[in-house]
Amino acid sequence: MKAVLLGVLLAAWPLTGTADPPRTVVIGGDVAEITAALGAAERLVGRDDTSTYPERLEALPSVGYLRRLAAEGVLSLRPAHLLVARAAGPREVLAQLEASGVAISRIDAPPRLEAIPAKVGQVAAALGDDPAIMDRGSALAEALQAEIAELAALPPLPPLRALFLLGHGGMTPRVAGRDTAAQAMMDAVGVTNAFAEMSGYKPVGAEALIRQAPEVVIATRGGLEGLGGESALWRLPGLAMTPAGQARRLVVFDDQALLGFGPRTPATLLALYEALEHQAMASDIPGSAGSLAP
């Protein structure tokens, strides 16, 4: 009798960790990277177009671009939980999804280097009360904080005027001004933005490029591919007449790693610092400059 009673009690008692995690759709490449780094990628049933790293996430169905979500596309995956980055929207669509019964965790971290460790903590907490995930989150945040401290302790770069070029297939290339993720990236490594006088990402003409005289171009791999490759970059009107164009000074990094402010960003910025330091030193040596693509 006691054995039967014990069996009934055990059957009714909730066992920690036995419940399946909620079906989760992740919106935002930085949030997706953190989720995977915390060992929770297996609970994802969908993603947005920016969530492509690590590579295995690309096998998940996409619900579209994070800023242009449609409720129907998201609901077609029958999610119980949405894990969304700050930039996700439109707000009306997120409100519609929440009203339909989908739980939404908003990771509201600004696109700044120093905010990345706290963003990791937010994602870990949003993934539920799992001690293993929380432990991984604490360890990852600590490692990222150490990389950020290492970057902050680096000596100032030699004076160097940089241009960040944003390019995608089918659109006019745009240059980064202030109030952009690219400006935050340049501030983090201590390089001067040649176009800091303007705000946002804007197309610029040949006269502006020549006048601002950037000494190095920073680009992303995806952006460079969208332009048609490095040879097409140097054919942009006016760029060949800048110090950067004359010496073919170019550094290229992965799009999400450089500008996503996710787990790979601090290490990528350390590599960018080294690349820019090399370019600054090479700028005084005729014929020694060239492109670097870490």
TrEMBL record:
Indicate the segments annotated as coiled coil, or none if absent: none
Q: Which InterPro entries match?
A: ABC_Transporter_SBP, ABC_transptr_periplasmic_BD
Top-rank taxon, per record:
Bacteria
PROSITE patterns xref list? FE_B12_PBP (PS50983)
Gene3D superfamilies, alphabetically? Nitrogenase molybdenum iron protein domain
- SUPFAM superfamilies listed in its UniProt record: Helical backbone' metal receptor
**Where in the numbering of this chain does the Fe/B12 periplasmic-binding domain appear?**
23-280
Give the signal peptide as a residue range, or say none if absent. Answer: 1-19
Tell me the keywords, alphabetical order: Signal
* Protein's recorded name: ABC transporter substrate-binding protein
